[in-house]
Every structure is written in C-alpha cells, then in structure tokens.
Amino acid sequence: MKIITVFSLLLFLGSSLWAQPVDHRLQKQLSDLVKDLHGDIGVYVKNLRTGKSAMVNADSIFPTASMVKVTILIGIQDKIEKGQLEYHQPLEYKDSLFYAGEDILGSFKNGEKIGLNKVMMLMLTTSDNTASLWLQSLAGTGTRINEILDSLGLVHTRVNSRTPGREANRQQYGWAQTTPREMGTLMEKIYRGEVISKSSSEKMIRLLGRNYNDEQAIAEIPPYIFVASKNGCVNASRSEILLVMAPHGPYIFSVQTKNLQDQSWGNSNEAWVLTRKLSALCWNYFEPRSRWKP
C-alpha cells in the first residue's frame, strides 16, 4: 500500500510540473487558425512574464528535423563546460565527414582547419548538416545527448539517428523527435540559465540568435527585437522554435507539423504560411499596436 501511495504521489508531482495557467483567449485563437491545415500540427506558446500558456496538441510527438541542432548544441556545450572541448579549438576537416547537400562545410578540402566555434556557427546559423553530424559525434553520440535531455526532465525529446537502440524511432520520426511543449520548455530552460550552467546557457542564447533562415516565424517579428530560434523541415514537416524578447515580456513560440499534404519547398508552402500567421498572431497578441511604440 505504501508503495502504491508513493507511486501515486510521484505521478501527481510529475503531472503538476506541467501544470500551467492557460490563456484561454489565445488558445481559442490558435485553435481556430490551425484547424484547416492539411496535416497534423502542434503549437505551444508561453508568456514568460505571466507564466500563462496556450497550446494545441502540445504533447504530440513530431519530427524535429533541423531543430535537433539545439540538442546537439547542448551536447557540445556540456563538453566545453567539462573541459573536454574548447570553444575555439582547431579542428581538421576530413572528406569522410561530408554529407551531401548545400552545406558550406561540405565544400571544404580534406585536411583544412576550422575552429569548433565556427562549426557551431554553421550548424545553427545556416543549418549546415555536415557541421551538425560532425558536432553530434564530438558531443559523444546521440546516446550522451539523450542522457542530458533526460536529466532535464524531457521524456519525448530524443536524438534517433546514429544512436544505438533508436532505429525504430528513426524510421518513424527521422533524425530526432520532440513535442511542441518540450521544445518550448527546453528553450525556456536555456533562457533561464538552467541548462548545464548559467554561462553556458547564455552562450547558447547568443548562438541561437544568429539564424540565417529568417523568412518564416521570425519574419513576423520586428527586426530590432532579439529572437533566439531554430527551424527545421523535411518533406512532410515544417517546424520552428522561437524565444522572442518582446518589450512587454519574453515569450516562447513552438510550432511543429507532420504528415503535410503540401510538400513544396517555397515560402508559399501551406505550413510555412500558417507558421507566419501564427507568429504574427502571437506578436500582435502580446504587443498590440496600442501598446507598441518602436
């Protein structure tokens, strides 16, 4: 009986960690906006000043696509914190690292030198996949990254590719998987200095504030507002995570999609159009024109 009681208490405490006051008005507006998408979508929005959140399918699991690079960044930063890597450490590129695509790093010649910090920049700013896979291996494989994510209380956010025992998950979700709420929670933890250390979290925020791919959710935020972000897409999925340092209080915007009928790659893709509308909704909701003076 005591074991059952303790177990029940743990379940209660675990569920209470996710309990947040809900912004019902914003939640209805989000729900109305996403209802006609030809595919599956999850949205998580949290005002970090008030603590109120709004969500749609926020605990459903989606492919991360390139949003996985946030978790790889954490793995590298953990190694730097422990003294196992150095931020400006010189690295030597090898042809065996090449991953086919439009990557900058993939155009390097065998034996060329590049600093670890610049490889991190390429992974986050231009979403360079050759750089990302190199960094994943330097971080100690996906298994080590997943151990860090687990220590942060994240139960669904996991690296799948090149990670022993996660082949079935890779087949279903690709490189990695997460939920809108967990990706938003991870970004919030980084913002609050709770990932690895305060200084490591601050460095990650700086690195995440240099996104070259700024034509979707970021495009709806005024250019003089700091945004830490990462987006990702594969054929049937378009996703994005933003920390917006809005004047009246920072907020998190996390949107993920899968099973999309529209798999086109231009900005007119249905999911990207919807992402921009959702981002604009959130910005104007938290920063209405009557309050905002640029």
UniProtKB/TrEMBL annotation:
<dbReference type="Pfam" id="PF13354">
    <property type="entry name" value="Beta-lactamase2"/>
</dbReference>
<dbReference type="InterPro" id="IPR012338">
    <property type="entry name" value="Beta-lactam/transpept-like"/>
</dbReference>
<dbReference type="InterPro" id="IPR000871">
    <property type="entry name" value="Beta-lactam_class-A"/>
</dbReference>
<dbReference type="GO" id="GO:0046677">
    <property type="term" value="P:response to antibiotic"/>
</dbReference>
<feature type="domain" description="Beta-lactamase class A catalytic">
    <location>
        <begin position="42"/>
        <end position="256"/>
    </location>
</feature>
<dbReference type="GO" id="GO:0008800">
    <property type="term" value="F:beta-lactamase activity"/>
</dbReference>
<protein>
    <recommendedName>
        <fullName>beta-lactamase</fullName>
        <ecNumber>3.5.2.6</ecNumber>
    </recommendedName>
</protein>
<comment type="similarity">
    <text>Belongs to the class-A beta-lactamase family.</text>
</comment>
<dbReference type="InterPro" id="IPR045155">
    <property type="entry name" value="Beta-lactam_cat"/>
</dbReference>
<keyword id="KW-0378">Hydrolase</keyword>
<dbReference type="GO" id="GO:0030655">
    <property type="term" value="P:beta-lactam antibiotic catabolic process"/>
</dbReference>
<feature type="signal peptide">
    <location>
        <begin position="1"/>
        <end position="19"/>
    </location>
</feature>
<keyword id="KW-0732">Signal</keyword>
